[in-house]
Each structure stands twice: as structure tokens, then as C-alpha cells.
UniProtKB/TrEMBL annotation:
Source organism: Aequorivita echinoideorum
Origin superkingdom: Bacteria
Residues annotated as domain ATP-grasp: 104-287
Pfam families (UniProt xref): RimK (PF08443), Rimk_N (PF18030)
An MF annotation (GO) of this entry: ligase activity
Protein's recorded name: 30S ribosomal protein S6--L-glutamate ligase
Annotated EC: 6.3.2.-
Cofactor: Mg(2+); Mn(2+)
Keywords (A to Z) from UniProt: ATP-binding, Ligase, Magnesium, Manganese, Metal-binding, Nucleotide-binding, Protein biosynthesis, Ribonucleoprotein, Ribosomal protein
InterPro entries attached to this UniProt entry: ATP-grasp, ATP-grasp_RimK-type, ATP_grasp_subdomain_1, Rimk_N, Rp_bS6_RimK/Lys_biosynth_LsyX
SUPFAM superfamilies: Glutathione synthetase ATP-binding domain-like
GO cellular component, one term: ribosome
Alphabetized NCBIfam families for the sequence: PRK10446.1, rimK_fam
């Protein structure tokens, strides 16, 4: 089979592991930088050019599109779809997953547990927003944040109000969310491929830190999900329309609460924590579908 991995950086762990796993199963595999693809659109006959060559004979693509290039990356994925190439992540699902507000609405409609969340569009009603989120302590998140940066725990109403006001002044959009104290500075990541959990880990923040991000000094260990957690994770991936998903959940007194569903989940943390060959599961997913 001819498999192309859409990735801006061929040196990334995830990209390299996917190349390795595809080769091991005797496929032709190539890393394509989606940002350097040209798309040709006319009546029918969709074509993609990469470094001056026409890309044909592709059987499947694995999109690994960074958040900063969602717009163009998605257009390239869509073009492959028009060429009837199988994709492990559909363009529609990719776009949906990158919109945090829309994602939470989709998950809520699917009946999944979520931390109560308030979105604000530079609102001046700071007091009401904090009330809506259940009062202090609350979590305040920058909409564009990642790796735990821009996630703040405001212990008191006064602190919450001044942080929200400060962000409003900077014209930075934020989410205000109920603080799930009993999660104990940990979250769980379920890695899903084709309707199955292929690995799960618990990430624990360092001492005194409520954020479990590995980039913030957290540590990851393999865990076995409860039936309830597994069901929630699978349902979340399905609601988002994702064949491959990293579902992040908080363990709360009222069961698992979905934090986020990642459409390009990294392989390094999960393969290291679980010792599983997840890249291989992804290649096998392609083999079943092409
Ligand atoms: N409502 C909450 N209650 C308790 N802890 C939370 C809550 N929201 C987030 N956390 C903790 O903070 C960490 C970072 O939050 P989150 O995952 O939402 O942001 P991020 O990692 O910066 O963004 P992204 O996951 O989109 O890259 C979580 O992994 C979790 O440990
Ligand atoms: Mg996170």
C-alpha cells in the first residue's frame, strides 16, 4: 500500500514511529509536508502537487496537522478525500475538533459528562460568569492555550474576577470552568483507534500542581480504565467523528468528565507509558479500510 503521512516535521517522534510501523508491514510510506502542497481545483479531476510532482497512487493518508496550520492542512486532507484516498482523520472531524466551543457542544449533546463550562466573548459581566461556573475556586483557560500554559486556578472570587478582567483587556478569549478538585492534579488520556481503546495512561502533576501536563513536569503511568471511563472515551471519539483520538478526562465524584478530544494525539507519551505499539495499531486500521 502507498501511505502518506501529513506532517510538518519528519523528525517528530510520532511521525518517525508511524514511518517505522508502516515499513515494518511492508508499505511504501512517505512524509509529506502539507504546508508545501499545492492544490489544483477544476471541474472534477482533483490534484495535489508536492515539490513539483503530482501526488497520485496514494492509498491512505495519516494527517498529523498542527493547530497552527489547521486551515490549510484541512484543505489538503479534503483534497485527498476528493481523490478518494482513505484518511485516518476526516477533514470535517479535524476542523470540528479544533474549535473548543463547538467540541464541547457536540460532547454535551452526546450526553457526556463535562466540567461545567462558561464561554465569554469579552464579556463585562465578570461576576455572573464566575457564578455560572459554580463560584470560586474556578479554572480559567485561554482559548488558544496549550501544554498547560494559560490554564489558571483562581482560588477566590476576587482573583477570578481580576484575572478575567485582565484577559478581557488583552482581548484574549477565555473559558471559565468548574474546578474538579477531586481529580487531584491528575487526568487520564485514552488513546482510541477505530472504536477501540488501544492504550490509556494517567498523568499526575508534580507536587502542588493542579495541571497534569507532562510539559509542566507531570508524570505518566499506564492505567486500566473503568468500564464507565472506557464507554465515555469511545462515545466521545465517536461523537467527534474521529477514527484516531486522544480523549482527556478528569476522574470526578460524578464519574468521568471529558476535558478535550485531541485529533492529532502524540504517540511518545502513550507508547512510553504503556509499552504498546500504537503506531502499529494505526497502520492496521488503514489495512482494514483500504
Ligand atoms: N476543570 C478542571 N478541574 C481540574 N483540573 C483541571 C481542569 N481543567 C484542566 N485541569 C488540569 O489542567 C491541565 C491542563 O488543562 P487543559 O488540558 O484543559 O489545557 P491544555 O493542556 O493547556 O490544553 P490542551 O489540552 O488543549 O493542549 C489538565 O490536564 C488538568 O490536569
Ligand atoms: Mg491538556
Amino acid at each position: 500500500m502507498n501511505i502518506k503521512i501529513l506532517s510538518a516535521n519528519s523528525h517528530l517522534y510520532s511521525t518517525q514511529r508511524l514511518v517505522e510501523a508502516a515499513k515494518k508491514r511492508k508499505h511504501d510510506v512517505e512524509v509529506i509536508n502539507h504546508a508545501k502542497c499545492d492544490i489544483v481545483i477544476e471541474k472534477k479531476n482533483p490534484v495535489i502537487y508536492y515539490k513539483g510532482h503530482k501526488l497520485d497512487h496514494t492509498d491512505a493518508i495519516i494527517p498529523r496537522i498542527g493547530a497552527s496550520v489547521t486551515f490549510y492542512g484541512t484543505a489538503v486532507v479534503r483534497q485527498f478525500e476528493m481523490m478518494r484516498v482513505f484518511t485516518t482523520t476526516e477533514s470535517q472531524a479535524l476542523v470540528r475538533s479544533r474549535d473548543k466551543l463547538r467540541s464541547l457542544q457536540v460532547l454535551s449533546r452526546a450526553g457526556l459528562g463535562l466540567p461545567k463550562t462558561v464561554f465569554t466573548n469579552y464579556s463585562k459581566n465578570v461576576k455572573e460568569i464566575v457564578d455560572q461556573a459554580g463560584g470560586a475556586p474556578v479554572i480559567i483557560k485561554l482559548l488558544e492555550g496549550t501544554q498547560g500554559i494559560g490554564v489558571i486556578l483562581a482560588e477566590t472570587r476576587k482573583a477570578a474576577e481580576s484575572v478575567i478582567e485582565a484577559f478581557n483587556n488583552l482581548q484574549a478569549r477565555v473559558i471559565v470552568q468548574e474546578f474538579i478538585k477531586e481529580a487531584g492534579g491528575a487526568d487520564i488520556r485514552a488513546f482510541i483507534v477505530d472504536g477501540q481503546v488501544v492504550g490509556a495512561m494517567k498523568r499526575q502533576g508534580k507536587e502542588g500542581e493542579f495541571r497534569s501536563n507532562l510539559h509542566r513536569g507531570g508524570t505518566a503511568t499506564v492505567i486500566k480504565l473503568s468500564d464507565e471511563e472506557e464507554t465515555a472515551a469511545l462515545k466521545a471519539a465517536k461523537a467527534m467523528g474521529l477514527g484516531i483520538a486522544g480523549v482527556d478526562m478528569l476522574q470526578s465524584a460524578r464519574g468521568p468528565l471529558i476535558l478535550e478530544v485531541n485529533s492529532s494525539p502524540g504517540l511518545e507519551g502513550i507508547e512510553t507509558a504503556t509499552g504498546k505499539d500504537i503506531a502499529n495499531s494505526i497502520i492496521k486500521y488503514i489495512e482494514r479500510n483500504v
